[in-house]
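From the shared-data thread, chain only:
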Amino acid sequence: MMLFFSLSYLVMNIEFAIIQIPSFSYNPPDSKEVIPLITGLKIGLNLMDRLNYFIGDIVVVWRAWVLFPQRLAVKTTLSICLLGSFVGVSLDIGLLIKGVLENFFYTGNKTEGLVLAIPLIFTNFTATALIGFKAWYHVQSIQRNLGSATTSPSKVLKIMLLLIESGLLYLAFWIGYLVIGLTQDGIPNVAGESFLSIMPGLVAIYPIIIILAVAHENNKPESVNDMSLSQSIRFASAQASQFEDHHSESGGESQLAFPAASINNTAEVEGNEIDVVPRLS
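Structure, as tokens:
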């Protein structure tokens, strides 16, 4: 879905540039024909951006959602955050469409930037905090069960740390977006405009980068400490099974030895009794 929106954004952006080229020629076309086309493309470009932003939030919420399959409170919190993001995105695009239709040169204001960025930042912060809590709980569980038996982080913990780091980076992108939107004051800024231009692309490739990074971490071989720990557990299990087998075999031999001894003793007693009894003549 994000790929479709990104391709649509790219196609409309190219068309937006092509339509404006004749306007700079020696004999420009009638503005009454060009302005409606450019207005529609501006609305379409901003709509694709906002849809990508919302889908990016869905991905962030999903990462935290799957870590708490049995926690209704967590799922309710994430659902409320996602609903807030949807409302913020919808309100922002509605205000932007209204402004563009009234004024062709309208580019938004600080209020619209706050309406868009704050719900998205809050949703990302909540999801990343929940993932961090899950990672902390995982570490405490390992230390409680294994103590100091292992010194290196497990593969699950490494993946969760990767999700936390990526969530913080994504959060930093949105904080930068908010700061730039609040400090521009209608004055063109090359750095700010460049960041705002690449923001839709960053949001689009963010889930792909996370999937590739997690897959790369998941395909890594186990560390030496993890292998030694697992080998120790398997060795202890093998020793326990060998001990049980040896104990059962020794127990069976002893049970078989006692009847044999009793049979031999009985034979000896019977033999003695036969020798003692005198013969009758």
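The chain has one domain: 2-232.
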